[in-house]
Amino acid sequence: MKDGVISKQDFPQFLNHLKKNAKVFAPVVTNGEAGFKEWSEEDSVEFSYSNLKLSPKGLFFPQTETILSFDAGSVEEVPSHEEKMVVFGSRPCDSRALTFLDKIFSEENKGYNDPYYMNRRENAVMISLACSDPCRTCFCSSLGSGPADEAGSDIVCFDLGDKLYLKAVTEKGELTIKDAGKVLSPGDESVRKDAEKQTAEALESMNNLEADLPSVKKNMDDSFDDPVWDRLTRNCIGCGACTYLCPTCYCFDISDEERMYKGKRIRTWDSCQYASFTKHASGHNPRKNKKERLRQRFMHKLSYTVENQGEVFCVGCGRCITQCPVNIDIREIITTFAEK
Amino acid sequence: MSAEAKNPYIPYPVTIEDITIENDARDLKTFKLVFEKPEHKKAFSYLPGQFAEVSVLGMGESPFGIASSPTEEDYLLFTVKLTGTVTQELHNSEPGRKIGVRGPLGNTFPWDRMEGKNILIVSGGFAFTTLRSSIVYMLDKKNRDRFGKITALYGARSPGELMYKEALKEWQEDSGIDLTLTVDREPEVPWDGKVGLVPNVLRELKPSADNTLALVCGPPIMIRFTIPALQELGFTEENIILSLENRMKCGIGKCGRCNVGSKYVCIDGPVFTFAELEELPAEY
User: Fold this and answer.
1) Residue A208 at interface with chain B, using a CB cutoff of 8 Å
2) Judgement on whether residues A225 and A176 belong to the same structural domain of the protein
């Protein structure tokens, strides 16, 4: 069974079914803001959001996590994260972002497997919620993606008003749908058509930057010392919000916490926007000024990762645009360097 | 492979067997570390040029170039300058203390390319660590025939700031290496080495660039003036080999901070040719 349909009213039955074998995370409104929460029956799943303030990145790469603990000088490994997890409601851009993080944390990246992230990923099923109403800062379609992109998803779900259409896009997704056969009715031509139509309309409604990405990279490489960066970075206050909200940012710090010889080594999200990120013990700092740091953020996403990971590390979610306190807009950066 | 080896964040337990104070300023100490478990010693297989994260539980980890040579089979050496939290804790340690080591990390000096070549080593200050490793490695009986003439120039502010004094003495008597020592200005103590800055002494020595690779490690200011001197002597950009340092945490290409352009010092380096660095922004 490759697809299934369920009414919104019955949707909790589907989640309940999934919950038998896994922790289920879904968008739930808490304090007026929709965000991923471990779902239980009393929670009502939220469907009406363009996107959530935070991507599901933190479910796989938590803001803070223990990487080892120690007691009187001996190291204890943290148990590996083998718990099954289902994530419902990630927007396709955010699910696609996970495929970029996979490249960084997997063994394919120079032979080093990051067990914390990779174990969580391997044990998770991603059910993405396709977009029917992209917001004006969304620009996934300018980055080779779109409102129902399947990358990083196991199932793509389409909100068709009173019912949901679930389409498996991986074997894991297929098994999940098959296993929930009792609560799902099979998909048919009519829902498939509705889903396609909705996606086409959503895509149509989006602004396209019409920027040739290879030319953006080339021009950025050629303009590393160009004074244009002074203008582009002038307003930055170095808060780092863009990096914390970004679904493809993955930089982290490692530090120790200790009390009476017992403690843990933790890793925490970090940001290239802070001077301490690159400051040597000697005091020397290769990226001393905010211009250099903001340039690093954009060079990393639009040039460096193209070289070392084969991808532009931006999925067009628009979070850094909507949340930047001084209105720095990555679309402006892209169009500045695009061939005119 | 043991379970510990699979998780690249878990350090191997080691014991500090010995601590040597290297300089008059007493802010450079060499730590001799021995593995607690033979399987870890076996797994830690390295070549000169690589580095490792030295871990002090509760304080953190810091990356240091490996100063010992793989031919010194029973121990690892790290020379640590007193600067921050981890180095302070290490400097306060006594032999017998248990710490951790994670590695080996990074690439090596280009040993395949160096085979059959003359080797010129140019160094200043406490960046000499992985070059000590290289010299010990090349002078080892098993390896000496693999290389042509070995020339080394090593400088420091004053005689008391030169590290590895016993090894320097041995090398001065070793016919397998032509070692020149220099200090920045005329010292008050008896001194039979050169007086002058490394780039100037290099110009005076005029080592041949013919079939020669130059390995250069030192403070940024020394590097900046040594490269033109080497180029004047005829060394090409490909034949000048440098080792970079940047702030690091993970050491395995994940945490994102040590990049220079699209390269990470921890996994693509720390060793780069000058030709490679010329292609990158100068963010180091």
Assistant:
1) no
2) no
User: What is B3-104's CATH topology?
Assistant: Elongation Factor Tu (Ef-tu); domain 3 (2.40.30)
Q: Taking the domain B111-243, which CATH number applies? A: 3.40.50.80
Interface list for A 144-203 with B (CB within 8 A): none
For residue A255, the chain B residues in CB contact (below 8 A) are 60
Q: Are residues A51 and A76 in the same domain?
A: yes
The predicted structure's pLDDT at residue A72: 83
Rounded to 5 degrees, what angle do the CA atoms A201, A207, A212 make?
120
The verdict on ipTM greater than 0.90 is yes
Nearest to A256 among B9, B59, B260 (CB): B59
- DSSP category for residue B163: S
The residue written with tokens 């399987």 in the block is: B39
Mean pLDDT by 10 residues, chain B (284 residues): 66 97 97 97 97 96 98 97 95 97 98 98 96 98 97 97 97 96 95 96 97 96 96 98 96 97 97 97 92
Same domain, A16 and A135: yes
Boundary residue ending a domain (A162, A182, A204) = A204
Look up the domain containing A252 and give its range. Answer: 213-337
Q: How far is B125 from chain A (nearest CA, A)?
A: 14
Please name the residues between 111 and 140 in chain A that touch chain B, using a CB distance below 8 Å.
112-115
Query: Is A82 an interface residue toward B (CB < 8 Å)?
Result: no
Specify whether the CB–CB gap between B113 and B82 falls below 8 A.
Answer: no
Question: What pLDDT was estimated at residue A261?
Answer: 84
pLDDT of residue B1: 38
What angle (nearest 5°) sits at the alpha carbon of residue A40, between those of residues A38 and A42?
A: 130
**Angle, to 10 degrees, between the axis of helix A213-222 and the axis of helix A330-337?**
80
Does residue B42 sit in helix, strand or coil?
helix
Question: Where do the domains of chain B lie?
Answer: 3-104, 111-243
